[in-house]
Structure formats: structure tokens, C-alpha cells
Amino acid sequence: MADLIEELVEAGVHFGHQSRKWNPRMKPFLLFKKSGVHIINVEETVRQLDEASEFLSNLALEGKQILFVGCKRQAQDAVRAAAETCGQFFVNHRWLGGTLTNIETIRKSISRLDYLEGLEKSPDFKKMSKKEIASLNRERAKLFRNLQGMRRMKGLPDAIVVVDSAREDIAVNEARRLNIPVVAIVDSNADPDLIDYPIAGNDDAIRSVRIILQNLIDPIIAATDGGRLVKQKRPDQD
After folding, report:
1. Which entry of 35, 58, 111, 150 is 20 to 30 Å from 121 by CA?
2. What confidence tens digit (pLDDT) does each residue in 104-118 have?
3. Is residue 138 exposed (0-12), middle (13-18) or buried (19+ Cβ within 10 Å)?
């Protein structure tokens, strides 16, 4: 535990937001204020990581689906790497309203993406003008950017993992409406009561996001891959 606490501190996990932006419900997870910034109790973070990672690894062991969500710039690469490394799914560019609550519309968009990707092999392709092709290529690129991480997901996820629960409030609210468990990094400005498995931590620093995600996926990999780490880029590596 001591080693992990040291790693978390080195990654800046303990730095919250400015104290004037805090959510009072985060009080149990905060130590004090320093230079106008709340300091997060990383001992609580470690305890929460243990609970969340156990929950996720049990889901993965049962063959369940986990959707990683993080669309802010600091989280995009880490979210994608974490999901791909443990064989799960992700949204890291834009959360489309209704992604969970209107899943059929999302499935239709994915079917549209499949069609556009195979368009060059279609007889209709040769009949299209350059302007039409350019427009369809832009549509394809947009759909791919938004849906690439979940296009192989079958139905609704069994849990979502969120980086920055305050920013991704639409995703959190949709999951709550459908009783889908939410694991999320909650900074000092967030409401931990909205999250099933809150993890108190800095959600703005890239290193902080990466180390938290890594500690969530390592047990998933161990549970589903016999302890052998998948040979892909880890989210805590540059």
C-alpha cells in the first residue's frame, strides 16, 4: 500500500481543484487546503481503487462488458489504451446523448459506418461525384471518431468507467437511469454520491488519470488472461 500511495502522490493524484470550486460531499476524502487547493487523501483513493478494481475484474471474469468513458483531452489516449489493453470498449471523443438510453439509434449509426467503410466496393461508388464522395468521407470520419470504441459492443455495457464524473455527467446520468453501475474518478468538485464506485483523485493531470486507470485494468487483465499482461501499450506509459 505504501508503494502505491507514493506512486499516486508522484503522479499528482492528491491535487484537487481550487477550494472555492469544491463539492462539500467530497469532504470525507479531503485532507486540507494548501495554497487554495484541496488535497485529496490518497489512502482513501487506494481503498476505493481496491473496491472498484475487484468489482471490474469480477465482471470481466464473467465475460461482461465494460465501457470506458473520457472525452477530455487529458484522458482521451489513456482511456483508449486502457480499454484496448483489457479487451473492453471506450468512448473518448464525444459522448452522444442517448448512447445508452437510445442504444438502437447508436446501433443504426454503427451500421451506417459499416456501410460507408465498404462503399468503395459497392457498384454505386463509381456513379458518385467527387463532391458526394468527399461528403460521405467526412461523415465516415466523424462516425468513426465517435463510435470506433464501441462498434463491437453487443448491447448495453454492464458497467462504465468514467474519467471526470462532473464533465461526463450525461454519461453518468444515462447509466444511472438504466441501473448500470458507474466507476468514476471524482475530483474535489464532483459529487461522489452519484457514483457507485467513486475514486477520489485528480482528473485533470495526464499522469494521474493514467495511473488510476492502470490500477483498474491490471486486475481485469489478471482475471481474464491468467495473470499475463497483454502486450500492448499501457495507459501509464508515454
Report:
1. 150
2. 999 999 999 998 988
3. exposed
